[in-house]
Amino acid sequence: MKEVQYYKDEVKENEMKLMKMKEEQKDEYDIKKFQEVLDESIMMVPDSEARLQKALDDLNQFMEGDSGKELNGEWVEKAQSLLNL
């Protein structure tokens, strides 16, 4: 979850930096390279969201399985809270 939020924040931050570079009429090469950095950040958002969803699906499957039913304690509560988001 932290990784997904990190990439979303990075995209916003890089968009602002790119806009500032364009406003200040920085070198075209620098702008082009920074656009590539931004594009990579944008591509990482859906990738990290997909990995998060897979991890949550795996956790849910484990918790619903026989192994998960036998567990109790703090970690089980944390797992359930993650699944209820």
Summarize the structure.
By secondary structure, the chain is mainly alpha-helical. The chain contains four helices and no strands. Helix 1 (2-23) runs antiparallel to helix 2 and helix 2 packs across helix 4.
List the helices and strands and how they pair.
Elements: H1 2-23, H2 28-64, H3 66-69, H4 74-83
Tally the beta strands.
Answer: 0
| CA distance, first residue to last residue | 11 Å
Helix content: over 70%
Largest sheet report? none
Number of structurally distinct domains = 1
Task: Provide the succession of SSEs.
Answer: HHHH
Provide the low-confidence segments as ranges. Answer: none
DSSP strand (E) fraction?
under 5%
* Nearest-integer average pLDDT: 90
Would you give the CATH topology? Answer: Methane Monooxygenase Hydroxylase, Chain G, domain 1
The Cα radius of gyration reads 20 Å
Q: How many DSSP H or I helices?
A: 4
Q: So what's the overall shape?
A: rod-shaped
Instruction: Write down the CATH class.
Output: Mainly Alpha
Write the CATH architecture name: Up-down Bundle
Q: Which structural category do the helix and sheet elements fall into?
A: mainly alpha
